[in-house]
Design a protein that fits this description.
- The complex is a heterodimer of chains A (411) and B (308).
- Chain A has 411 residues and is an alpha+beta fold.
- Chain A has two domains: 189 residues, no CATH class; 170 residues, no CATH class.
- Chain A contains twelve helices and twelve strands.
- In chain A, strand 3 and strand 4 form a beta hairpin.
- In chain A, helix 1 packs across helix 10, helix 2 packs parallel to helix 10 and helix 2 runs antiparallel to helix 11.
- Chain B has one domain: 3-Layer(aba) Sandwich (Rossmann fold), CATH 3.40.50.300.
- Chain B is built from eight helices and ten strands.
- In chain B, the strands form two sheets. A six-stranded mixed β-sheet of chain B has the order 6-7-8-3-9-10, with helices on both faces.
- In chain B, helix 1 packs parallel to helix 4 and helix 2 runs antiparallel to helix 8.
- Chain B is globular and about 50 Å long.
- Chain B starts with a helix and ends in a 10-residue tail after the last strand.
- In chain B, 48% of the residues are buried.
- About 16% of the residues of chain B have low confidence.
- The chains are: A alpha+beta (411), B alpha/beta (308).
- The interface between A and B is medium-sized, with 25 and 28 residues.
Chain lengths: 411, 308
């Protein structure tokens, strides 16, 4: 028998058992739909994170005081993984000096930070202030201003503020060259940052010399963190190790247990975020795959019923010349067709679910919604047909192996 | 002898042009005797006979062994055939040592009450089953030695089945049902369609070719089944209670049609039945009871029952 005839017979079977076929197809639609929906949502989220990461400076390594053993594997900052944190550790100019000579370092700068009351037109708000080195900050930061300028080396009591502070924190908007009061000291706003949608929108950046005077508990030449910028992204891993070694020596630390600083490379952070995202997509995809599996069991079930129901027809076909292979192929084509129809509808459903979810979660999470990849649609279809064929193998084989005499006698 | 040679040897017995003529005669017979069919008034249009083509596969091998009609070489030969079914721990013998020879061109009626083993016998004759003991030989070839695909080939090319309950595929149209055996033999689509059209015309169902079996009457369904059984132009027609589900008039038409095939085509007709009336068409009657042949009776056609 020719393939086109198998196809015709398979389709004929599908069309003539409407209700049961459709119920089976619904199973596959839901399975394929959820896989497509979740995977493409994962894609969109990953794409958005990736674009966010692309904006990130991946050459930065941040040194923070204190060290948590639990976080040692990812050189994370203290307090992230619980466990004991070594206290009283400080980062000072000595540390910066120790790192100056490293070949891969492009820039190095200490930072201090704190939360202080900031007044503007009689209103007070507690805002975080970061003191940065005005000599190098503009080279190290990826932030940009929407108006005004970034910090210059000669600045002291001036500030660059986040867009949120400028437009939302106070009743009156803050503009460039207006003055805010931090701990009773006037600070002139020289620049307003472009909106980032992250913490930077509500941060105030000041030259470190000025910030030391304004932030309580801050000390001269003592930093809350030191940021090192590598000459290139490839050098980050090596540099991280070098920094670690240098600091261990300069801080006279012999044993790992006594270590009192942590390193965070934005590159490794980015990597772990990406990794987390893909494992989350994988996890959700696996849940969706379970529904696909249920759909597959549904096809197998329907096919078994169909074989039983068509036993007499199978007997008749064998009597008039059908070979075992013919019967096998007719049933396989039928179940492949169930998979195909389910797959087509599933892809459509999945696209709707995906765009619906993306719309619900907003453009921040998904990068504005990128729809469903064409390749994913074809993968979904191929998967559905494959599931149809696989679920149909055993019932079709059984049908093909029926003895004609028994099949004809079946009532 | 290979299986193909066996099949060819049967096919060469039939002259395609002879088939044509006789089928057309059968059609005119049909028009007279079947009153529940409409649209049969186009007999004269029956000009193109797809079975008459020179390229027809039924005349493939000229050197294949021919079976003589003088009765020396049986078409089907059963030698001490037993069919034993295991029913739990009990063995039940449906056939007990049947020995029977069927010759080409016979109109054989296997007559017996229900439970006599006649359906089991038909299954063996139709290569639908193999015996538990003994031999069933088709043209001297033991069917027990053939695998399933070889048996399928024999069934598909040599035997036309007609069942009591018609056994049409309910989801296929009348035409598709007739085409099905040709599809299994991968016959050229164009020729297949011509053949189906021809056969449907013969049985007077051209206007019903798009109908599903459920839209046909019992008699019409059996006519479709006959058209289907003739699709591959098999030398043997095997019918299991072909009139069992039909009224007398329609039943007579069906039997008349089969008789026409036998008379004019020389086809070997084997009917398994419990209906004594069918005996009048037979050239030989095999009486079967409790799995054994009670007696075999040679007959002259249309001789009244009981005069023998």
């Amino acid at each position: 028998m020719r393939n086109s005839t198998y196809l015709k017979m398979g389709l004929n079977m599908l069309l003539h058992s409407k209700l049961r076929s459709w119920l089976t197809i619904i199973g596959i639609v839901i399975g394929v739909g959820s896989v497509i929906g979740i995977v493409s949502l994962g894609d969109a989220m990953q794409a958005s994170i990736q674009s966010e990461l692309a904006e990130m400076d991946l050459t930065k390594i941040t040194i923070s005081p204190g060290y948590t053993k639990a976080s040692s594997n990812m050189h994370g900052p203290p307090g992230m993984g619980g466990g004991g944190t070594s206290t009283d550790a400080e980062l000072t100019d000595d540390d910066i000096d120790a790192l100056q000579g490293l070949d891969s370092v492009q820039y190095i700068a200490g930072e201090i930070s704190g939360s202080e009351e900031v007044k503007y037109t009689g209103e007070t708000a507690t805002l975080s202030i970061t003191g940065v080195d005005p000599q190098v900050w503009k080279y190290m930061t990826t932030l940009e201003t929407q108006s005004g300028r970034l910090l210059e080396p000669a600045d002291k009591y001036v500030a660059v503020i986040g867009s949120g502070i400028a437009s939302e924190t106070y009743d009156h908007d803050i503009g460039v060259n207006q003055v805010i009061t931090v701990n009773n000291k006037s600070v002139r706003v020289v620049g307003i940052l472009t909106e980032e949608g992250m913490g930077d929108d509500s941060n105030i950046y000041m030259p470190i010399d000025g910030a030391v005077d304004l932030i309580e508990d801050a000390q001269e030449d003592v930093y809350d963190s030191i940021t090192v910028k590598a000459k290139s992204e490839d050098l980050v891993d090596g540099l991280t190790e070098d920094i670690e070694k240098r600091l261990m020596v300069s801080r006279h630390i012999i044993q790992e247990d006594d270590r009192d600083f942590s390193l965070t490379a934005s590159k490794s952070m980015a990597e772990s975020v990406t990794e987390m995202m893909s494992s989350m997509t994988l996890f959700l995809g696996a849940i969706a795959a379970v529904s696909l599996l249920v759909g597959a069991v549904g096809i197998a079930n329907t096919m078994f019923t169909s074989v039983l129901e068509k036993t007499k027809e199978i007997g008749t076909m064998k009597a008039i010349g059908a070979k075992n292979r013919d019967i096998l192929m007719i049933f396989l084509f039928n179940s492949a067709m169930v998979g195909l129809v389910g797959g087509i509808l599933g892809v459509i459903l999945g696209s709707f679910v995906s765009s619906g979810l993306q719309a619900m979660m907003g453009s921040d999470m998904t990068g504005g919604g990128s729809g469903v990849r064409i390749s994913l649609m074809f993968e979904g279809l191929a998967l559905a047909v494959m599931i149809g064929v696989i679920s149909g193998v055993v019932p079709a084989y059984r049908a093909s192996k029926l003895k004609p005499v028994d099949a004809l006698r079946y009532e | 002898m290979t299986l193909t040679e066996i099949i060819d040897s049967f096919k060469t017995k039939l002259d395609p042009s002879k088939i044509m003529n006789s089928l057309e005669k059968a059609a005119s017979f049909n028009a007279e005797s079947e009153n529940d069919s409409e649209g049969n008034d186009s007999r004269e249009d029956l000009k193109i006979n797809p079975y008459n083509n020179s390229g027809n596969d039924s005349a493939k091998s000229s050197n294949a062994i021919r079976i003589s009609q003088n009765g020396e070489d049986p078409l089907i030969k059963l030698t001490d055939v037993w069919k034993i079914y295991q029913m739990g721990e009990v063995e039940f013998a449906a056939l007990k040592g049947i020995t029977l020879e069927i010759y080409e061109g016979e109109f054989l009626v296997v007559l017996g009450p229900s439970g006599s083993g006649k359906s089991t016998l038909m299954n063996l004759l139709g290569c639908l089953d193999i015996p538990s003991k003994g031999k069933v030989c088709l043209n001297s070839k033991d069917i027990s030695e053939l695998d399933e695909s070889e048996l399928a080939l024999i069934r598909g090319q040599m035997i036309g089945f007609i069942f009591q309950s018609f056994n049409l595929i309910p989801t296929l149209s009348t035409e598709e049902n007739v085409l099905l055996p040709l599809e299994f033999q991968e016959e050229d689509r164009h020729i297949s369609r011509q053949k189906a059209a021809y056969l449907l015309d013969i049985v007077g169902l051209t206007d019903k070719k798009k109908n599903l079996p459920s839209q046909l009457s019992g008699g019409q369904r059996q006519r479709v089944a006959i058209a289907r059984s003739l699709a591959v132009n098999p030398p043997i027609i095997l019918a299991d209670e072909p009139t069992g589900n039909l009224d007398t008039k329609t039943g007579d038409y069906i039997l008349g049609f089969l008789d026409g095939l036998h008379e004019r085509e020389g086809k070997t007709i084997i009917i398994v039945t419990h209906d004594l009336d069918i005996v009048k068409y037979a050239t030989r009657v095999v009486y079967i009871r409790d799995g054994e042949i009670e007696k075999i009776e040679k007959r002259t056609k249309n001789e009244p029952e009981g005069l023998k």
